[in-house]
Design brief:
Elements: H1 20-23, E1 27-35, E2 53-57, H2 63-68, H3 70-84, H4 103-126, E3 133-144, E4 147-152, E5 157-167, E6 171-173, E7 192-193, E8 196-197, E9 213-217, H5 221-232, E10 236-240, H6 252-265, E11 267-269, E12 273-280, E13 283-290, E14 293-299, E15 301-304, E16 308-310, E17 343-345, H7 356-371, E18 386-388, E19 394-398, H8 401-407, E20 412-417, H9 422-426, E21 433-438, E22 445-451, H10 455-458, H11 460-467, H12 472-477, H13 488-495
Parallel strand pairs: 1-2, 1-5, 2-3, 5-17, 9-10, 9-15, 10-11
Antiparallel strand pairs: 3-4, 4-5, 6-16, 7-8, 12-13, 13-14, 18-19, 19-22, 20-21, 21-22
Helix pairs in contact: 3-4, 3-5
Length: 504
């Protein structure tokens, strides 16, 4: 009897990992192979101790979220909020200023914690606490049905077969095919490629020093969050986007307000294309084609933040019969199973939502379905919320007003301004709001979109209401709302919706 189970997702370290030679096998068969150690690493647990399991990881243990995504970025966002607080003080009678930013100190505090967690997670899976698990550090690709070839980091190779696979290998940074950036569309996020030096979200947070200026290419949430961080720390920021607005996937009113505020903080170049990039003696030079014609932009650092692409093609999943859609995502059904029996997928490699909370949900579904194949459960993607941790903060769930109009969905809309509730009034808040959409016949919520202080927290009662089928009227009137708290924004927005008028 074991005294310690191989518990899912444990980050405890091990001082006695199995010898690498035990893990380096030319050929091996397993009951289960898991590719990727983000949310996929939460699957092995006590219910699978009777199985032989292989974990294949080409990068850092913990996946995108822990190492280069949500966790470190939000650990930068909070110091940025503190650094940027002085900007909001004048309207409240506070004259403050930012004296200095200790970038190396901030960076080292963040990655000193994260790198230890990454190392501890790897050691745990390799150690005696997980005797049924073999870890392969290397890049895998399918070469035939349920056969994975692995190029090991130590220079060797292995091939593994399995009865069942879980594809949880995530996504990679996309670098546009611009002259001077020879990395092309499937770059893996290296700091240098072609003739110009650049960074991606994989590398930008480990800069040796805070730059004086940065050019950020992209108009989505990754670009927005890094623009907020660097601008707050006093860096001269220029953001370049092809579209007419930033965060264009958001509700149109939210996107317009955010674009307006971003442009007031730093330079925003909209409807602008980059035609070339080259190194200079002290940074990079970008050739731009925009609304005002051509121009040259120089910056100390270039950040490419133009999105991420699923890793299904990199795994050559089609060699094992797994299909990819037109966007490169692994095709799965509601049970997270591919078209090949016994092969599941979860997270960025297969999901329309590149969100950690979605990957975690899908991992729970896969874990259940592996353990109980005769009584599978399905993923619930009805109401997936998301947030952008900028200033102002943004959060959303459900459909936008534009979608409702285009799809002909009957809807009622209420926009509630932060400045019209006590907590917002106390902050002298201006321009921020919560927009709610509801079915006029039933009062059920269809969507919610917030831009303003603590939007990601403020919106949570609406996410709950949508999941549990609560009407706007019931949520607003059948509970207490703390006064004067930001949550009153939700109460007042819901009270502003018209009384449902059932159709007969």
């Amino acid at each position: 009897m074991k005294t310690l189970s191989c518990l899912a997702g444990s980050l405890a370290g091990s001082t006695s990992p199995r010898l690498h030679s035990e893990r380096k096998q030319t050929m091996a068969h397993f009951d289960l192979v898991i590719i990727g150690t983000g949310s996929g690493n939460s699957i092995p647990g006590p219910e699978f101790e009777h199985l032989t399991i292989a974990i294949v990881e080409d990068g850092l243990f913990g996946g995108t979220c822990l190492n280069v995504g949500c966790i470190p970025t939000k650990m930068f966002v909070h110091p940025a909020e503190l650094a940027d607080a002085a900007r909001h003080g004048k309207a409240l009678g506070i004259d403050a200023q930012l004296n200095a930013v200790d970038w190396p100190g901030i960076r080292d505090r963040i990655f000193g914690r994260i790198d230890a967690i990454e190392a501890g997670g790897r050691q745990y899976r390799e150690g005696p606490e997980c005797p049924n698990i073999t870890v392969f550090a290397g890049r895998g690709r399918f070469i035939e049905h349920k056969t994975l070839h692995i190029d090991l980091h130590d220079g060797g190779t292995s091939q593994v077969t399995a009865d069942r696979f879980v594809l949880a290998a995530g996504s990679h940074v996309v670098v546009p095919n611009i002259p001077g950036l020879a990395a092309g569309t499937d770059a893996a996020g290296t700091a240098e490629a072609g003739t110009a030096t650049f960074h991606t979200s994989d590398t930008i947070m480990r800069l040796d020093k805070l730059p004086a200026s940065i050019a950020i290419l992209g108009g989505g949430y990754i670009a927005a969050e890094f623009a907020h961080v660097f601008s707050s720390f006093g860096v001269q920021v220029t953001q370049i986007a092809r579209g007419k607005r930033l965060l264009k996937s958001q509700d149109a009113d939210v996107s317009a307000q955010y674009t307006k505020e971003a442009a007031a903080r730093y330079t925003v170049l909209l409807e602008t294309q980059v035609s070339g990039v080259a190194n200079t003696a002290d940074g990079v030079e970008l050739q731009l084609n925009g609304q005002d014609g051509t121009q040259t932009l120089r910056a100390e650092v270039l950040l490419i933040a133009t999105g991420r692409k699923p890793n299904g093609a990199n795994l050559a999943v089609e060699a094992t019969g797994v299909a990819l859609d037109d966007h490169g995502r692994v095709v799965v059904d509601e049970f997270q199973q591919t078209g090949v029996a016994g092969i599941y997928a979860l997270g960025d490699i297969s999901s329309h939502y590149q969100l950690k909370h979605v990957a975690n949900h899908e991992a729970k579904v896969v874990k259940h379905n592996l353990a109980h194949p005769d009584s599978p459960i399905s993923s619930d993607h009805r109401f997936v919320p998301a947030a952008v941790f900028t200033d102002p903060q943004i959060a959303s769930v459900g459909i936008t007003e534009a979608h409702a109009i285009k799809a002909g969905i009957p809807h009622a809309v209420k926009i509630q301004n932060y400045g019209d509730i006590a907590a917002g009034w106390a902050r002298e808040d201006s321009g921020h709001f919560l927009k709610v959409l509801a079915d006029p016949a039933t009062g059920l919520l269809l969507g919610a979109h917030a831009i303003g202080p603590e939007a990601a927290t403020v919106i949570q009662p609406l996410i709950q209401a949508m999941h549990f089928g609560q009407t706007a009227h019931d949520v607003a009137t059948k509970q207490y709302w703390i006064h004067p708290a930001l949550s009153e924004l939700v109460e007042n927005a819901l009270l502003g919706l018209p009384t449902p008028q059932p159709t007969h």
